[in-house]
Amino acid sequence: MHRSRVHAILIDTPQDEAAAASAFWSAALGAPARPLPGEPQFVSLHEALPEVGLAIQAVDDAPRMHIDIETDDVDAETARLLALGATQVKRWQECRVLRAPGGHLICVLPVASPPPAVFEAHARIWP
Question: Which of 22, 31, 76, 88 maximizes the CB count within 10 A of its CB?
């Protein structure tokens, strides 16, 4: 048995457009844009979506959006999503990058909610 939940929605933006995208989405959503310490490719749009993160991620690729799913068992959640039809694209740090049917990316990562009570309150339980 393991648990998981949507942790964040990321707006993947080409690196040279990331600053403009951060300013746009911050103003459009009325959410302050805050760089994440130690992770320069991410800018958080703090409190744009209560209890779910929203961030701009600078990428070396085309614009897109992807979902981060946090879990207390990365291997089990990855296996569950693969059984549902996702395919594994790569590993990145402790995360697994998957592609869902339809082409959208999903990152499966260890629990990252601050505070941990958010994960405890909202995670779904899977057999």
Answer: 22
Of 37, 34, 32, 68, the residue nearest 48 (C-alpha)? 32
Residue type, 4: S
- The tokens describing 92, both together, are 């990145």
Global pTM reads 0.90
User: Residue 93: left (phi > 0), alpha (psi -120 to 50), or beta?
Assistant: left
Residues in the chain: 127
